[in-house]
Design goal:
heterodimer, A: mainly alpha, de novo design (two linked rop proteins), 5 helices, elongated, B: 257 residues, 6-stranded mixed beta sheet, rod-shaped
């Protein structure tokens, strides 16, 4: 199967990373005010997840790491060349792996689902797929 | 002339082939490099997971519950109905309004209440009712609901006592489904699936809110707060936070007489 044009993949990655910055920023701001994200569909899942011990790493809200990750992914999507193809793939792999772990925690440890975290995990999964296709199809093809 | 053109064409073709081979080799090399880096990235994720799962240290350790046997021994043989410990026909009722996250309630449960339970509740002179008064934070509500759900299976007091003995730092996030379930198992709740359904039921949360409202109506503002009912008491007699087991026992005696 032929891979989509690299420009298309970069466009998709740009859109996803921008969306991800928005989601991660909202979670970070909601947490920094001493509160928690508001679950759009109601319920206390977002609050339970935000207040759990798993929501911070090295004393910093995980969503703050998410902002950094999405910004770097956005840069990789906007820039051309092998370094950014590979960088985007590796960053998305780390993000996807950690998002997978966080979703496992929500389902089996915290016992609550935060819609914002699920949204971020979905974006990170799509970014991983997009960046993996870009890297495998186009790395080393520049003249 | 024709021979020269042929030589140039062959040379160009050779260069193109060489460039193609070089490009293919470079691409293969980069993909190998990416694979190795991906392996490292997976290792980074694994390290982060280990750090995240070993972090905390704020108490509420679900994997290492303490004093399971002590709680069992304290409550052994004493009947329980819902969140009421003791003989249903006991003359006096001691009401505790507590928050499972409250460190003072924990201290009370460990130091002040055991003699009262042994001397007054186990003897059938009084019964002891636990009422959620959730003032510490939002996590107190699911904790209280978990205790009520355990109460529906006759293990409410085991749950309260075991929770206190394994309490973590206030609002530190230790009140997770994992921790609540570990306490339920330690407290001997027989049907964990039913307990899970009950603790998540809206009616259980409403019950937690109702007893909190009741405590506020009584004029309590801190936890643990106590009140006593009985033939010798005028309605619900407020005790506040008694200073010792002896104070509580005296109040029970007066209410029962």
């Amino acid at each position: 199967m032929k891979a989509p044009a690299e420009g298309t993949l970069r466009g998709i990655a740009t859109f996803l990373a921008t969306f991800g910055i928005g989601v991660a920023t909202y979670i970070t701001i909601a947490d920094s005010g001493g509160g928690s994200p508001v679950c759009v569909a109601g319920g206390h899942g977002c609050q339970a997840v935000a207040e759990s011990t798993y929501s911070h790493l090295f004393g910093v809200n995980i969503a703050a790491f998410g902002i950094v990750g999405y910004v770097l992914l956005l840069l990789c999507a906007l820039l051309r060349g092998d370094a950014f193809r590979m960088g985007g793939f590796l960053l998305a792999l780390v993000g996807f792996g950690y998002s997978f772990y966080l979703t496992y925690l929500e389902l089996f440890k915290i016992d609550a689902i935060c819609q914002w975290c699920v949204a971020s995990a979905t974006l990170m999964t799509l970014l991983f797929v997009t960046n993996a296709i870009r890297m495998l199809a186009y790395v080393g093809t520049d003249p | 002339m024709s021979g020269r053109r042929d030589r140039e064409a062959r040379r160009e073709e050779r260069l193109r082939e060489e460039a193609g081979v070089a490009s293919g080799e470079r691409r293969q090399r980069l993909i190998k490099l990416a694979s190795a880096a991906a392996f490292l990235a997976v290792a980074v994720v694994a390290v982060l997971i280990v750090i995240a799962s070993s972090g905390g240290g704020s108490g509420g350790d679900a994997s290492n519950l303490k004093e399971v046997a002590e709680v069992e021994q304290l409550l052994e043989g004493i009947p329980q109905h819902g969140m009421v410990l003791g003989e249903p026909g006991a003359k006096a009722t001691l009401l505790e309004f507590g928050d499972l996250q409250c460190p003072f309630c924990k201290a009370f449960a460990e130091e002040v209440l055991p003699p009262v339970i042994e001397n007054r509740i186990a003897s059938g002179e009084a019964k002891l009712s636990f009422n959620n008064f959730t003032i510490i934070g939002p996590q107190s509500v699911p904790a209280g609901a978990a205790a009520l759900a355990a109460g529906k299976q006759g293990r409410g007091w085991n749950y309260v006592e075991l929770f206190y003995r394994n309490q973590g730092e206030e609002n530190s996030g230790y009140v997770t489904g994992e921790f609540l379930t570990a306490v339920a198992k330690g407290a001997g709740v027989p049907n964990i699936a039913k307990w899970n359904r009950d603790r998540k039921a809206k009616s259980t949360t409403e019950e937690v809110e109702a007893t909190t409202a009741k405590a506020e109506e009584l004029g309590f503002s801190g936890t643990p707060s106590f009140a006593v009912e009985g033939p010798g008491a005028e309605g619900v007699e407020k005790l506040g936070t008694p200073g010792s087991s002896g104070d509580l026992e005296s109040a029970i005696e007066n209410a029962a007489s």
